[in-house]
Design brief:
Elements lengths: L9 E12 L3 E3 L2 H10 L6 E2 L5 E5 L8 E6 L2 E6 L2 H14 L13 E11 L5 E7 L7 H13 L4 E5 L1 E2 L2 E2 L8 H4 L3 E2 L18 E2 L4 H12 L4 E8 L4 H6 L27 H18 L4 E5 L6 H5 L1 H9 L5 H18 L3 E5 H6 L7 E3 L4 H9 L4 E3 L2 H4 L16 E2 L3 H5 L10 H5 L1 E8 L7 H8 L2 H11 L6 H15 L26 E2 H11 L8
Parallel strand pairs: 2-3, 2-4, 4-6, 8-9, 8-20, 9-14, 14-15, 15-16, 16-17, 18-20, 19-21
Antiparallel strand pairs: 1-7, 5-6, 5-7, 10-11, 12-13
Helix pairs in contact: 1-2, 3-5, 5-7, 7-10
The protein binds acetamide.
Acetamide (ACM) binds next to loops.
Length: 536
């Protein structure tokens, strides 16, 4: 029976089985053998000349592709590259009992059933987004998320490192970013901007540049690419609390302590580009090779640009007709800075609607796949990120038992049924959809326990679609089986039948539920996707 999740291209049972012992040897090219060993840490596998596991390289396979054959004489892995070897190791891991997902084992050997697997991913971008700005997630938890991503063959971790409510990276060039912008005195406990209630508890935290270097290296070893996001020019309250001179008005700001869209915006003038260039240099210096940098571009309130005589004069000097064009120009300028450093820019869809992007800029259509299709038709690579069904800050059920969420409902089945590149699109539009990514916005995710609940098992469905192209008809059965692995890993996922008693109240859901229906929200967003302006 196939128990692998995500579903492999081909899996067939073979006669015989193999007894795989703790401390068994892995032979083959060191880089590939190490990748297999990393996928099965508790087995304490050793490098050796002849191995219970023999790994070979086959350049004819894609970098992420592999073949895995288990027979009575041992395990044979053929991989197209290091990533393929790592994923073969992950599939081999799933052929072993759930106990091998624990951090320590009391058994010396396990029987691996005879099997042949041939496998490669459908999508190159298999992403998860963490909003560490609204609520900070300590480094140890980010490393744990990376482990879980590796186990599900997910390979892009998008870190939303700044928003109105906090800046989350050390800066030696601009130290007030981590000294001032990384914390707030209190946090709103509801969504009503007119009548906020507050918890009175300080919140904050940031990653040092050494932390970021560690996160990136840890991720790389698990075939996960870190995609840092510096979300500009909007969502700027935290940056402006530290450096108000970078704003469009010079007025003072505080790190925002409530939710919703703020009018705080960076000035588009050259000092802001110089500031962001210095920040990018620090980030890229810490992260090492960084193929993608997200520069945001969403939910910009452009009124302060419109009202400023200096910005208007600058816009006119550039020959731009309106502030919308200036928005697009500013992001293109930053994308050029990144291109000089070997990184490709990624933006939210408002930046595409603003116009004037570099052709190689990648677009994340969060306001629906309609705007995603337009970006693909215009030649951009697209990463499917629509609110429905990929915003995992929405509850999984319309139930007062669910912990408070921004809205409801997005179920495991909704995610498993998602078609990132619909068959009704033109072939060249579909080809430009490089993958998909789930978003974990954290206004309502205060800590790692709630993060687990929101992320899993929906991210299992994400992994299935991202790797296999579409969920298999046996997906729910494999998922039920897979939850035993998550139990062994200690993941506090949402049970398929609903929350456990202690998962119901974090954070508290008020009796009157001010949540949005996910489909209605997406509908509203789809209509606003012709505009760069926020609709809220
Ligand atoms: C977004 O949800 N503002 C990208």
């Amino acid at each position: 029976m196939n128990t692998l999740l995500p579903r492999p291209n081909v899996l067939s049972s073979l006669s015989g089985s193999y007894e795989l012992a703790v401390g068994a040897t892995v032979s083959g090219p060191a880089e590939l053998a190490d990748a297999v060993r990393r996928a099965l840490p508790v087995l304490d596998l050793r490098p050796g000349d002849t191995g219970a596991i023999d790994v070979r390289m086959d350049p004819a396979l894609g970098e992420e592709a592999y073949r895995l054959v288990v027979g009575s004489r041992g395990v044979e892995i053929t991989a197209g590259g290091r990533a393929g070897a790592f994923y073969a190791g992950q599939s081999l891991h799933q052929l072993l009992p759930d106990a091998t997902y624990r951090s320590a084992v009391t058994t010396d050997a396990w029987t691996v059933p005879g099997v042949r697997v041939e496998d490669s991913p459908s999508h190159s971008w298999r992403g998860l987004h963490l909003d560490v700005a609204r609520h900070f997630l300590p480094k140890r938890e980010v490393l744990r998320v990376i482990d879980l991503m590796g186990a599900h063959k997910l390979n892009r971790l998008h870190l939303h490192l700044v928003d109105d409510q906090g800046w989350r990276v050390e800066s030696r060039a601009y130290p007030r970013l981590h000294e001032v912008a990384s914390h707030r005195a209190r946090t709103a406990t509801n969504y009503f901007r007119e009548e906020p209630t507050y918890d009175g508890i300080p919140h904050g935290g940031y990653y040092t540049l050494d932390d970021l270097a560690e996160i990136a290296a840890y991720a790389r070893a698990r075939e996960v690419v870190i995609v840092p996001e510096i979300d500009v020019p909007g969502h700027a309250s935290a940056i402006l609390a530290a450096y108000p001179e970078l704003g469009a008005t010079g007025e003072s700001f505080e790190v925002l302590d409530r939710w919703g869209i703020s009018p705080a915006i960076l000035s588009p003038l050259p000092p802001t580009v110089d500031f962001l260039t210095a920040v990018f240099d620090e980030l890229l210096g810490a992260l090492g090779a960084t193929p993608y940098v997200h520069i945001g571009g969403d939910e910009c309130v452009l009124d302060d640009w419109e009202a400023s005589a200096e910005i208007t004069a600058y816009r006119r000097s550039l020959g731009l007709a309106d502030v919308g064009e200036l928005h697009g120009w500013f992001l293109r300028r930053l994308a050029d800075v990144l291109a000089e450093r070997g990184s490709r820019a990624v933006v939210w869809d408002e930046a595409f609607v603003a116009g004037g992007l570099r052709k190689d800029t990648m677009v994340m259509p969060w306001r629906g796949m309609g705007v995603g299709r337009r970006a693909a038709a215009a030649g951009h690579s697209v990463i499917a990120t629509p609110v429905f069904p990929l915003y995992f800050d929405y509850a999984e059920a319309s139930s007062t038992q669910e912990p408070m969420a921004i809205g409801d409902a997005i179920t495991v089945t909704d995610v498993a049924s998602f078609e990132p590149a619909p068959s009704s699109w033109e072939p060249e539009e579909r080809e430009r959809v490089v993958g998909l990514q789930a978003q974990l916005w954290s206004e309502r995710i205060p800590d790692a326990r709630v993060l687990d609940y929101r992320a899993w098992p929906r991210a299992c469905a994400l992994a299935e679609v991202a790797w296999a192209g579409e969920a298999g008809s046996d997906f729910m059965g494999r998922l039920e089986r897979h939850l035993g692995r998550l139990d062994a890993l200690g993941v506090e996922y949402r049970p398929l039948s609903g929350p456990r008693p202690w998962q119901q109240g974090r954070p508290h859901r008020p009796a009157v539920v001010p949540v949005m229906n996910a489909m209605e929200h997406l509908d509203e967003m789809t209509h606003s996707a012709t505009s760069t302006r926020p609709s809220v």
